[in-house]
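ERR on first pass: missing label on line 2. Operator R.T. fixed the label and resubmitted. Corrected input:
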Amino acid sequence: MMTRWLRIIFPAVFVLAVALVLTGCGGGGGGKGGGGGAEEVKVASDIAYPPFEFNKGGEPTGFDIDLMNEIAKRANLEVEYQNVRFDSIIQGLGNNLYDAAISAMTITPEREEQIDFSEPYFNADQSLLVQSDSDIKSVDDLGDATVGVQIGTTGAAQAQKYKEQGKVGEVRTFNTVTDAFNALENGQVDGVINDFPVSADRASQSNGELEIVQNIPTGEQYGIAFPKDSELRPRVNKALQEIKEDGTYEKLYVKWFDEKPEEIP
Amino acid sequence: MQIEWPPVTFNPEDFNPRNILESYFDVGIVISQWDVILQATLVTISLALLAEVFGIALGLILALMKISRSRILSAPAQVYIDVFRGTPLLVQITIIYFTPASIGIRPESLFFAGLVALTLNSAAYVAEIFRAGIQSIDKGQMEAGRASGLSYAQTMRYIIVPQAFRRVIPPLTNEFVMLIKDTSLVSVIGLVELLRAAQEIQSQTFNSSALIAAALIYLAICLPLIYLTNVLERRLNRRTA
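pass 2 clean. output:
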């Protein structure tokens, strides 16, 4: 009796599954839609990095997102954001999985060997974030401490450099910066080395539990990442230049950081 | 729910065999980081071995509790097994590592936190394996044992469980293979085991060769175990056939 039902159910489920995939059930994403001739581009980002990119109400938002949307308006592009792990972005671009990536990514010579960057769009520094009641007041106090970082970031590279200089005991890498921050709050790491604006954002939300004790000026700048020889890059650069010159950049900066930029990159 | 269509596009102009060799099979990178990889492999193996040993011990206890006629024993065992089999291991690892600080306990060692999570998880699966093994023993064995004057506990200990042990070895070895691969999940709390070591090398060199090396190492650990399972199954069938 039951085997007769099973013999009907199994093939039925299989056929249903195949049908679902073939008809691209639920919205047929990658089709050639898009209104009015705007070119569709896939932009990758590690959308868990406030205030540059984070999810609010199910939609990506943040400084980077706003900036990219502005660029898209001027360059006649339609952006589809893809949430990816930060350390997979470079390889993803190398394999043409997406057309560009904006993710508070620092321009470095090592990265430039793999991908192309746009003109810089943000001046950033690293910082050391600790618990407010910690004895650590600067990088020199770290000694044997354990430092948390996000894997694949310049913060990770900076911490690694400190470790080789003997300034840090152990460097622990996490998949997302939030994991690193959580570990700091739980006392599982003694400090987090990460981009200043992001750590500042976390500190301000921590009810005084966490504080930045040192700004590590590295003079690093963020850029939008493209696969090598991308024809999208010059168009984005042109739009970016317009944004810097016509005051939009300053407006965006004030919106997200509550103060005017010291200098437009 | 959105499914991209078409799911795959063909781009023959992107085909580049040299790039594949360079990015996935760069032996130089793997050799230069050999000590890191070896150290991480040791972490993975010891994590898996310890979790399996403790998991088997706990799992056997749970199995006996579950089949007990006393509700005080069987109910908690049932709940434990359901919870740990029904939730993702990744969630268990994250909760076990990140929550205790707020109840006053702090795991000082990533290895220990990972070991606890893997043991608790593994015990649930092992318990089911043991339960099935024990219950597959002919009821006549228990009857004969009781009839010979042995208590329930004694029959279990000297007659039932030893027979069940032989039967559960193939599924247990299977579970061990899964456990070895599951150790890679502990990377999410920052423990440098094989996968995490490979990922860090990948992010520093922008090259995936370390990941391929890690995959090969996992294979080198698991394949002998899988063949061992086959050999054991054949041996056991010979005995009972």
